[in-house]
Specification:
Blueprint: H1 3-18, H2 22-43, H3 46-51, H4 54-68, H5 78-100, H6 125-137, H7 141-152, H8 157-164, H9 168-192
Length: about 190
C-alpha cells in the first residue's frame, strides 16, 4: 500500500469516525495504539509503574482520544492525529504522577491538545513555548521534577532541599545540571529541524 493510499484510507476513516462510525474510530485508534504504548513504556519510570500498568494508561489515553475526536480539525493528517494521541498520553502520565506528588501537581501543562501543525512554516512564540514544554517533559524524571518545582511552582531552594532530603547546595547543583540538559535538548532539536 502506497503512502497516498494510506492517506486516503485515513481521510475516509477520519470523516466516518467524526460522524460517529464505531468501526472507523476503532481503526484509527488501533493505528496509533502501538506508538502510544511504546511512548508510555519509554516514559514510565519506576514510580509511575508502581501506580499503574502501561496498558491501563494506554487504555485511558485511547478513551480520552476517542472522546475528543469531534473537537479535532476536520482536515487532520495522520501525523497530526498521532501527535494528538501522544500529547494525550503525555497528559495521562502527568495525571498519574500528580497523584504521586505531595503537592498534587506534576507540572503546568496546557489543558487542551496543541494546535495542529502550522502549515505556513511560521514559528510563533506559542510554538516555541510548546516545544520547550515538550522537551521538559522528555527529560529524565529527576531533572524534570526539580525544574518544575523551582521554575513552574516557584518553590525555593530550601523548600526543594527539605522535600528531597538533600542539602541546598545539592539542589543548586542539580538545577544547574538539569538546566544544562534541557538547554542541550532544545538546541539539539532546533539544529535538526
Amino acid at each position: 500500500m502506497t503512502q497516498d493510499d494510506q492517506n486516503e484510507d485515513f481521510a475516509g476513516d477520519w470523516r466516518r469516525a467524526r460522524a460517529g462510525d464505531a468501526r472507523a474510530q476503532e481503526r484509527l485508534l488501533e493505528a496509533v495504539r502501538p506508538r502510544v504504548r511504546a511512548f508510555l513504556d519509554r516514559r514510565m519510570g519506576p514510580g509511575a509503574r508502581r501506580l499503574a500498568e502501561v496498558d491501563d494508561l494506554v487504555q485511558n489515553a485511547m478513551l480520552d482520544l476517542c472522546r475528543r475526536l469531534p473537537r479535532f480539525p476536520e482536515d487532520l493528517a495522520p501525523a497530526e492525529f498521532l501527535a494528538y494521541a501522544l500529547q494525550i498520553a503525555r497528559w495521562r502520565l502527568g495525571d498519574l504522577m500528580k497523584r504521586r506528588s505531595p503537592t498534587g501537581r506534576a507540572s503546568e501543562m496546557p489543558a487542551e491538545p496543541a494546535a495542529p501543525i502550522d502549515r505556513s512554516g511560521v514559528v510563533t512564540r506559542q510554538d516555541e513555548h510548546r516545544y520547550c514544554v515538550e522537551q521538559l517533559q522528555n527529560l529524565p524524571e529527576e531533572d524534570r521534577l526539580i525544574l518544575e518545582a523551582f521554575h513552574l511552582r516557584g518553590q525555593g531552594v530550601a523548600a526543594i532541599a527539605a522535600g528531597l532530603g538533600i542539602s541546598p547546595a545539592a539542589v543548586k547543583q542539580r538545577l544547574v545540571r538539569s538546566r544544562r540538559r534541557l538547554r542541550e535538548r532544545i538546541l539539539a532539536g532546533r539544529s535538526t529541524s
